[in-house]
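Q: Could you predict the 3D structure of Ig-like domain-containing protein?
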Amino acid sequence: MRGSLAGLLLVYSAISLPATGYIMQEISYCGYGDEEGNITFQYAITFNHLVALGYSSKENMFLPNQFMLDKMWPVVRDFAIEFNSKPDMLNYVKSEERRCKDQIKTFWNDTAQRSVKPSMEVFSPEQFYGENLPLLICHVWGFYPQDIVVVWIKNEKALVKNVTEAVRVGDWTYQVVAKLDLRDSLPQDTYTCVVRHESLDTPMMKSWRAGLTFVQIITISVSAAIFTLGLVSLVIGVICWRGARRRGYTPIPGYNETS
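A: Sure. Here are the predicted structure tokens for Ig-like domain-containing protein:
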């Protein structure tokens, strides 16, 4: 019967409308309406994005759209009467409504209502996206839902929030990057990034204190190794030279042993 309705609407549109094409749609909507968990189900047949007739759960019947074009209104009205008088369409829509109510809570809990705990890291990069200022970064990622609070604490005193808006990662999780200017920091200062999220029973936090960066540690370690190697070589050379002198060996100036 839905196919018959589409055919008749097409005939009337060919008579009354310019030859610009048409769109027929069968639309079902299943919504988890409010905090009390009320479920909203809607079913409609549209013609060129205009609802031709729809199902009313409250009245348990199909209702035609009174604002259809004059030449299409009789067709829509007659099919609404036919759908309401025969059980096939009503049974079909009622089964869709039952399926909506049976499945939506499971889908809602597994998607929109799920909660994923964040991960976090605090670090001071050598350079951050072209910025040369000394920065401290608090990277928080892998959390859901989006709402999150990130606060910087300096020496047990809360600072003004400096948080970029959480952005989608693409796997149904979010991330946020909080930056802090370190130009006024002192070596003894301690910074703590505190994260509050509905998935956490207690706030998550990590602390950071000014010190050598990873690159600086590597540079100093390599320099120290080279210096130690040079010092060992010098000591060995001095020991060998002193031993040779004790054995009475004296190099002859200008003497070439191979000549």
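Q: Anything worth pointing out?
A: The chain is about 35% helix and 30% strand.
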